[in-house]
């Protein structure tokens, strides 16, 4: 039962409420102008305590920045490159605006205003990333019972502009592989299996079973500031992928005589390959291919992943298998990413159905 009493102020009188918090401590809330006002607050506070919704005023006043260190430590499942991008987003966009704000003072309207302002200056990708950081931090605030609801929920975000997706034909993939010469098997491996760049260059000989056509993807190499660090895969999970027989034959020649712990592909010094720059061997090879064939697309290493997905889908592989091969966390992600390729397959099915009917 709360106690409501009048107290003397420098000018006049006010009313205060003294109550017992769920943690057993005696707490006071004052500043009410009338007894009825104090009683209304006391009744509402008693309801929140009874319903298990009470939040300590001390915790409620904690700044958003107090959540960052714990949140950052909990992101151990992310690749180093992904964490670097999120850290930059926090320092450049989130912390300056929200770092000193008490978690209880982060309101939906203010978050929407911030998102709209940021969208007027930066790309949708940057806006989505910054919003994602704040939303995740406030999600922790909800989980730690610092606030009752996430003020970022329901905020309208700018539409993302999809990146141009280039896909090579089998002939173009072979042409590019021939052009890179030294890393021919790497290009073929990525173009046929769909492994991410970081996953491919982190592979050791022991990760390959070329007799059965399998590769174990358990780690990923990220390039940060010109240096390579090896950690978990993008999803934090290990998976086994299939390797086409002709790619296995290419790989057998490359790994012959190497120890199980040796890298499959290395730079000139025997270390991990770094992500190709615009002037690297990869882009130079693409430029030569384009000079010889005006229809050759300006692919990046990541487009080899799209190429593999395209060939898997064209072969009639079920979406669940494609998702597993690519390391997608769900078949929905695969469908969302490659919807246009599945649409093409659907057209082929319809065409075959009409041919059969006729």
Give the tally of structural domains.
Answer: 3
Query: Radius of gyration over alpha carbons?
Result: 29 Å
- What integer is the average pLDDT? 89
| CATH architectural designation of the largest domain | Orthogonal Bundle
Along the chain, the helix and strand elements come as EEEHHHHHHHHHEEEEEHHHHHH
Biggest sheet details: 3 strands, antiparallel
**Gross morphology:** elongated
CATH superfamily of the largest domain: Intergrase catalytic core
Protein name: Site-specific integrase
GO molecular function: DNA binding
Family: Belongs to the 'phage' integrase family.
Pfam family, one: Phage_integrase
Structural commentary:
The chain folds into three domains: 3-54; 64-143, DNA polymerase, domain 1; 170-353, Intergrase catalytic core (hpI Integrase, Chain A). A hairpin with a 2-residue loop joins strand 6 (220-224) and strand 7 (227-231). With 358 residues, the protein is mostly helical. Residues 347-358 have low confidence and may be disordered. It has 15 helices and eight strands. The longest helix has 20 residues, at 124-143. It is elongated, with a radius of gyration of 29 Å. 49% of the residues lie in helices and 11% in strands. The strands form three sheets. Strands 1-2-3 form a three-stranded antiparallel beta sheet, covered by helices on one side. A three-stranded antiparallel beta sheet has the order 4-5-8. This is Site-specific integrase. Pfam families: Phage_integrase. It comes from Corynebacterium amycolatum.
């Amino acid at each position: 039962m709360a106690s409501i009493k009048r107290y003397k102020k420098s000018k006049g009188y006010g009313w205060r409420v003294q109550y017992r918090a769920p943690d057993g401590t005696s707490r006071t809330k004052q500043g009410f102008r009338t007894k009825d006002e104090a009683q209304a607050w006391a009744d509402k506070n008693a309801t929140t305590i009874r319903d298990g919704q009470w939040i300590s005023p001390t915790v409620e006043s904690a700044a958003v920045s107090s959540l960052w260190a714990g949140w950052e430590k909990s992101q151990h499942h992310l690749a180093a490159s992904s964490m670097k991008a999120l850290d930059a987003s926090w320092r450049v966009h989130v912390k300056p605006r929200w770092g000193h704000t008490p978690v209880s003072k982060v309101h939906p309207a203010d978050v929407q205003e911030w998102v709209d302002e940021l969208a007027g200056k930066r790309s949708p990708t940057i806006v989505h990333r910054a919003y994602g950081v704040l939303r995740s931090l406030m999600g922790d605030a909800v989980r730690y019972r610092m606030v009752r609801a996430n003020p970022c929920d329901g905020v309208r975000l700018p539409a993302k502009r999809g990146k141009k997706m280039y896909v090579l034909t089998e002939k173009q993939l072979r042409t590019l592989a021939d052009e890179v010469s030294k890393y021919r098997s790497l290009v073929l491996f990525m173009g046929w299996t769909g492994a991410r760049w970081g996953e491919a260059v982190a592979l050791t000989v022991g990760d390959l079973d070329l007799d059965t056509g399998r590769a174990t993807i358990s780690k990923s190499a990220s390039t940060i500031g010109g240096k390579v660090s090896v950690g978990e895969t993008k999803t934090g999970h290990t998976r086994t992928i299939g390797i086409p027989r002709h790619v296995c034959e290419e790989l057998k020649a490359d790994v012959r005589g190497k120890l199980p712990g040796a890298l499959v592909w290395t730079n000139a010094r025997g270390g991990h390959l770094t992500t190709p720059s615009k002037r690297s061997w990869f882009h130079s090879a693409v430029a030569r291919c384009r000079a010889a064939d005006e229809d050759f697309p300006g692919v990046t290493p990541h487009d080899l992943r799209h190429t593999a997905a395209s060939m898997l889908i064209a072969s009639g592989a079920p979406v669940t298998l494609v998702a597993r091969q690519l390391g997608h966390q769900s078949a929905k992600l695969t469908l969302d990413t490659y919807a246009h390729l599945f649409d093409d397959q659907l057209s082929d099915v319809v065409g075959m159905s009409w041919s059969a009917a006729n």
